[in-house]
């Protein structure tokens, strides 16, 4: 059973939402909002890990289709970049939260990183949409 379509939407929703929460935290101030954003981001990255693993498994049956190889490869590359960026941001930011120092201007680079992660996942989702809506990958048709 292909669980990729169910798992991927959590990452697509949570990672950008975490970036928005971080922006709100910068605007309003407050460590609690940054912490909420961080937890949301970590759950989003965990979902991205599940999406990459399940996506790689689901893609295995489509590599022989010449009409999707380029898009599939591009989608996979962006998904991997998104996951690696997310893991680096989650691990890099962890000490600030453990020391209760996740507040103020020191958070700006991490918020920008979260926005970069949101951008990466948007590009990844675009190519996933091309696979589904233009090539019927995962829909049981044209396979």
| Percent of sequence in beta strands | under 5%
Shape: elongated
Question: Could you list the spans in which at least 5 consecutive residues all have pLDDT below 50?
Answer: none
Structural class: mainly alpha
Radius of gyration: 17 Å
Oligomer: single chain
DSSP E strands, number? 0
Task: Give the number of helices.
Answer: 4
| Helix content estimate | over 70%
Largest sheet: number of strands, sense, barrel closure = none
Order of helices and strands: HHHH
Cα distance, first to last residue?
16 Å
- Averaged pLDDT: 94
Can you describe what's shown?
The chain is built from four helices and no strands. It has 143 residues and is mainly alpha-helical. Helix 1 packs antiparallel against helix 2 (31-59) and helix 2 (31-59) runs antiparallel to helix 3. It is elongated, with a radius of gyration of 17 Å. The chain starts with a helix and ends in an 8-residue tail after the last helix. The model has no long low-confidence stretch (mean pLDDT 94).
Fold topology:
Blueprint: H1 4-28, H2 31-59, H3 69-98, H4 108-135
Helix pairs in contact: 1-2, 1-4, 2-3, 3-4
Q: What keyword list fits this structure?
A:
143 residues, mainly alpha, elongated
Brief description of this entry?
The chain has 143 residues and is mostly helical. It has helices at 4-28, 31-59, 69-98, 108-135. Helix 1 (4-28) runs antiparallel to helix 2, helix 2 packs antiparallel against helix 3 and helix 3 packs antiparallel against helix 4 (108-135).
């Amino acid at each position: 059973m292909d669980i990729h379509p169910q798992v991927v939407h959590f990452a697509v929703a949570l990672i950008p939402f975490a970036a928005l929460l971080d922006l709100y935290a910068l605007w309003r101030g407050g460590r609690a909002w940054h912490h909420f954003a961080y937890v949301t981001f970590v759950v989003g990255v965990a979902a991205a890990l599940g999406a990459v693993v399940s996506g790689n498994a689901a893609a295995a049956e489509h590599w022989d289709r010449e009409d999707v190889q380029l898009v599939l490869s591009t989608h996979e590359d962006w998904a991997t970049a998104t996951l690696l960026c997310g893991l680096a941001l989650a691990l890099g930011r962890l000490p600030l939260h453990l020391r209760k120092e996740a507040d103020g201007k020191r958070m700006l680079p991490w918020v920008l990183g979260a926005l970069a992660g949101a951008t990466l996942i948007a590009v990844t989702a675009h190519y996933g949409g091309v696979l589904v809506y233009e090539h019927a990958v995962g829909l049981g048709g044209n396979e």
